[in-house]
Amino acid sequence: MVNLGGAPTDEEDLRARMAGRLRFVEMMKTLGAEAEPVVEQKLAALNTPAKFDFKQSLQGVSDGGPKAWARIGQNEVHMGIPR
User: Fold this and answer.
1) DSSP category for residue 72
2) What is the mean pLDDT of the chain?
3) Exposed e or buried b for every residue in 42-70, given b needs 16+ CB within 10 A?
4) Which of 63, 16, 33 is nearest to 7 (CA)?
5) Could you give the CA distance from residue 76 to residue 83 in angstroms, rounded to a whole number?
6) How far apart, in whole angstroms, are the C-alpha atoms of residue 77 and residue 72?
7) Is 14 exposed, middle or buried (0-12, 13-18, 19+ CB in 10 A)?
8) What is the model's pTM?
9) Could you read off the pLDDT of 16-52 as tens digits, one per residue?
């Protein structure tokens, strides 16, 4: 028969939890320090997409600009029916 010394006391349990948390924080710091240069390198390698000017040529088609968003949240009535 193995005697495990009984159930852990609240103080022992608290110490074990705190030690586990400290190990976890140290592990996360180590992993973050290892990953940060790789992430920075990948971000630096990203190219910004080419920009273009959108010229609206179709009548009644929105370009998604400020005019398209100007009426958001306003109740509009069309032929007596609220939209």
Assistant:
1) T
2) 80
3) eeeeeeeeeeeeeeeeeeeeeeeeeeeee
4) 16
5) 6
6) 13
7) exposed
8) 0.42
9) 999 999 999 999 999 999 999 999 998 888 877 777 7
